[in-house]
Amino acid sequence: MTETLLDLKGLKCPLPVLKTRKALTRLNTGDQLTVLTTDPMAEIDIPHFCQENGHELLAAEKLEGGHRFQLAKGG
User: Where is the UPF0033 domain (predicted)?
Assistant: First the structure.
């Protein structure tokens, strides 16, 4: 299992979700991806993306000025 960090701070909707999707295509099932973002819409978009595409949202944390999401790639 690998863990990857994706720093998307400063990008606006829809770029965080699009770049998250692209990053997940390079990972194997069960690999983890941490996504950092400052886009307020990511709080809605990233969990919805995971639910719609079979990925597991392990954690969502509100940070000062943004969010951190921990995802596991689904099968």
Answer: 6-30
- Residues carrying an active site annotation: 13
Cα dist from 29 to 8, 20, 24, 45, 72, whole Å:
22, 15, 9, 21, 8
CATH 3.30.110.40 fits 3-72, yes or no: yes
The arithmetic mean of pLDDT across residues 40-60, rounded, is: 98
- Number of neighbouring beta carbons within 10 Å of residue 66: 17
**Domain residue spans in the chain?**
3-72
pLDDT, tens digit, 9 for 90 and up, residues 63-75: 999 999 999 999 9
